[in-house]
Design brief:
This protein is mainly alpha-helical. It contains 6 helices and no strands. Helix 1 crosses helix 2 (32-40) and helix 1 packs antiparallel against helix 3. The longest helix is centred in the first third of the chain and has 27 residues, at 3-29. The protein is elongated, with a radius of gyration of 17 Å.
């Protein structure tokens, strides 16, 4: 795959994440009890709902930042996605070190696995892509 095509895939996925993270933010904040019971399948105790809401705020933030990057700094798309991947890996390692465990089904984990894989695959397609005459993206980043 050439870099221009790979960049289009990265930008398309980043735009998808704009909408996905906005929906996740909405679910975690405005509909958190519904999301806890019907999607995540976790006990909707007040502490869990508060943590869901707090996490929803970060979903709104990432949605808005992803939109700005998609609109104004498209050449950063693969760099942002690989940074998201690194952040999740770092967070997962931190949770393992902290011995954080789950007791509930947490059905949302499966969507997050796909999210995690995609934030690795799309940037790798770009970074390993063949240079082409139409690719201005490498020049913009240097």
């Amino acid at each position: 795959m050439n870099k221009t095509t790979a960049m289009k895939w990265n930008r398309g996925f980043l735009l998808f994440l704009v909408f996905l993270d906005f929906i996740r933010g909405f679910m975690h904040t405005f509909l958190n009890e519904f999301a806890a019971l019907n999607i995540a399948r976790i006990d909707p105790n007040p502490d869990a709902l508060y943590l869901l809401g707090a996490f929803g705020i970060s979903n709104f933030v990432t949605s808005f930042i992803f939109f700005m990057i998609w609109k104004k700094a498209k050449h950063l798309s693969p760099y942002v996605l690989i940074t998201v991947f690194a952040g999740y890996v770092f967070g997962i390692l931190g949770m393992q070190v902290g011995r954080t465990t789950m007791e509930s089904a947490f059905n949302g984990q499966y969507m997050m696995y796909a999210y995690l894989v995609a934030t690795l695959v799309f940037p790798v397609l770009y970074f390993t892509g063949k240079d082409d005459k139409n690719s201005q993206y490498d020049q913009e980043i240097e």
